[in-house]
Specification:
homodimer, Arc Repressor Mutant, subunit A, 2 domains, 3-stranded antiparallel β-sheet, 10 helices, DNA-binding
DNA sequence: GTAAGTTTTGCAATATCCTGCAATATTTAT
DNA sequence: ATAAATATTGCAGGATATTGCAAAACTTAC
């Protein structure tokens, strides 16, 4: 069997299944795992797939690269994202935060809305690239490893230029008294500027984020206009926020 | 048996089976494997198939929609990208242009190099995101539809801050007298700033780009340090550039 | 931490490829 | 038609590539 036959089969399975395992290919093709491993390495060098531990996954630049991480997003966040869409009106200027929640909103955004989107998130930008009526303004800066967002002074200076209608803010922790907090200093700084640059703040938070706190302060709770969660129970926690004048959705 | 008969049969089997083996053809046609090998070599030179170890496969495989439509992922550009890698040394500051050629370089970049990369290209940034020792500085700005790069004043102002060692510049057109040109005004402006901000310019251009011109001027030809092409024929065009003090690779 | 699984590296066995050469077939020039 | 030039073919060898194995280094999950 030619090496190229193996290549083709590997790539075909990859297109079909979105993943391949070393062990499976080894038995299927009757060669050692080492050989498959070397094949995958070679294909990866050509940029035709991405080698990962135990196998390989498709690898093409553009939006598809983010599919993996979006996949293990929960139903909760889907619910939140759908609710968030209702707050976006045509011709608004919207700041998209870099978190996964905001990415989901970008993913679900209908193709026909007219928006100006400001973001520091690569997934958001690439997802919106093909929306004909969405102008994307991307905040440059230093690329933060493992999170596909830019941070740093350049990012902040860029964001300061805007006066957006809405900011979609992914929330790590929120507490009625301690306010919104984040576990990463530089991200917290960026979030703070996003908030300063927006009239209304839409917070996206799964219920377990409510009434928790992290190390770095972002903004007081009453700066938020709306908190969108996946459940709408009428429990104590909700009353606290409602009394602060925040709309729960 | 005529050589041409063998050729026909080899190509027929190739269309039918998507592969041929040296051994199989040898017994089938009653000639030595060496003869088949030479036949295949000759057919490969005519571009009618691709010679591989142990046999041959079709030159442009049928159901291989895997090749990106974003990247015109031709062998030419692969060759160019590989050559370009040799110019990148550890601890340099490198500006990556947004074109497909530069993306391929990013794709092929080994994981262990230490670099600071400045770019306005989303694919370049996301590809390098997982390189542990590559710091990515992304130029913000307006996202240009259908090309995954940022453009505009913000992009330009960001790029102006740097004094890079090298700029990897994808070339649309180059002409010894008319210089480097581009078909898109805003992209040409960005390229111009990238050049201003770099000491050495490495131009990435397939041979058919040589001695052609487009509407928007980027820089004079002798501003380039190296032109990397997929072929290194010693023809007239090359001499022109060499006489300008440009290294051809 | 440990243990299980995975990747990397070096190595040896095998297969394939390239080169030069000699024998034969084919073409060309006279 | 004949000799010389050219092309084709098979073969021997040394060079190169591929493959599987095993030990060591590394990851991951618990």
């Amino acid at each position: 069997m030619l090496k190229e036959e193996r290549f083709r089969l590997i790539l075909d399975r990859l297109v079909h299944d979105q993943k391949v395992y070393l062990a499976g290919l080894s038995t299927l093709l009757n060669v050692s795992e080492d050989t498959i491993r070397r094949d995958i390495k070679e294909l990866a060098e050509q940029g035709l797939l991405k080698s990962v531990r135990g196998g390989a996954v498709p690898h093409s630049p553009g939006p598809h690269r983010f599919k993996d991480r979006i996949l293990h997003d929960t139903e909760q966040k889907q619910i939140i994202a759908k609710k968030a869409l209702e707050f976006l009106k045509d011709d608004q200027v919207v700041i998209f935060d870099g978190g996964t929640s905001a990415v989901l909103v970008a993913q679900l955004l209908p193709k026909d809305v007219h928006l100006t989107v400001v973001t520091n998130s690569f997934p958001v930008a690439t997802l919106l690239e093909e929306h004909e009526h969405v102008e994307v303004l991307f905040a440059g800066g230093r690329l933060l490893k493992n999170s596909f967002v830019t941070i740093g002074n350049d990012t902040i200076q860029f964001l300061k230029k805007f006066r957006a209608d809405i900011c979609l803010l992914g929330i790590c922790s929120i507490h009625a008294e301690l306010g919104v907090t984040s576990p990463n200093f530089e991200e917290s700084e960026v979030k703070r500027v996003m908030i300063e640059s927006s009239k209304e703040i839409i917070a996206l938070a799964t219920v377990e984020k409510l009434e928790t706190a992290e190390a770095y302060y972002v903004c007081p709770t009453d700066r938020l206009s709306v908190i969108i969660t996946d459940q709408l129970a009428e429990d104590e926690a909700f009353k606290v926020y409602t009394e602060l004048g925040i709309k729960m959705a």
